[in-house]
C-alpha cells in the first residue's frame, strides 16, 4: 500500500464532468490497448487553460487551489495525453478528488 506524504490533496472545483470517458485509436480493440488514466480534475485543468484560454492563475482561482497545485495537475494531464497520443494508447478519464461547481454554489448560497 502506498503511503501519502505531506498534506492531503484538497478537492478541486470542477465545472464540467465528461460524458465520454474513453478515447482510443481507431481500428484497435480496447482489450488490445494499454490504457493511460487521467483524473477529472486534470481534464478540467486542460479545459480551462487550453480550451477556454485562461491564464493558470485565473484557472487556479476557479478550481479553488494554488497556482502551483494547478500547474502540477496541468503538467500531469499534458504528459499523460502526449504519451497516449504518441504511443497509441487509450485514454481513460476517471476518478480524482473533486467536487462539482454546481454543488459548491448551492452550499455557498444556503448560508444567506
Secondary-structure map:
Layout: E1 12-14, E2 22-23, E3 35-38, H1 40-51, H2 56-63, H3 67-87, E4 90-93, E5 98-100, H4 101-109
Parallel strand pairs: 1-5, 3-4
Antiparallel strand pairs: 2-4
Helix pairs in contact: 1-2, 1-3, 2-3
Explain what the structure shows.
By secondary structure, the chain is an alpha/beta fold. It contains 4 helices and 5 strands; from the N terminus they run βββαααββα. It has helices spanning 40-51, 56-63, 67-87, 101-109, and strands at residues 12-14, 22-23, 35-38, 90-93, 98-100. The strands form 2 sheets. A 3-stranded mixed β-sheet has the order 2-4-3. The protein is globular. The relative contact order is 0.25. The model is unreliable at 106-112 (pLDDT under 50).
Order of helices and strands: EEEHHHEEH
Structural shape: globular
Tell me the distance between the termini: 44 Å
The number of helical elements comes to 4
Rg from alpha-carbon coordinates:
16 Å
- Integer average pLDDT: 88
State the total count of DSSP E strands: 5
SS-derived structural category:
alpha/beta
Strand order of the largest sheet: 2-4-3
Q: Which range best describes the helical content: under 10%, 10-25%, 25-40%, 40-55%, 55-70% or over 70%?
A: 40-55%
Percent of residues in beta strands: 5-15%
Instruction: Catalogue the unreliable spans.
Output: 106-112
* Largest sheet: number of strands, sense, barrel closure: 3 strands, mixed
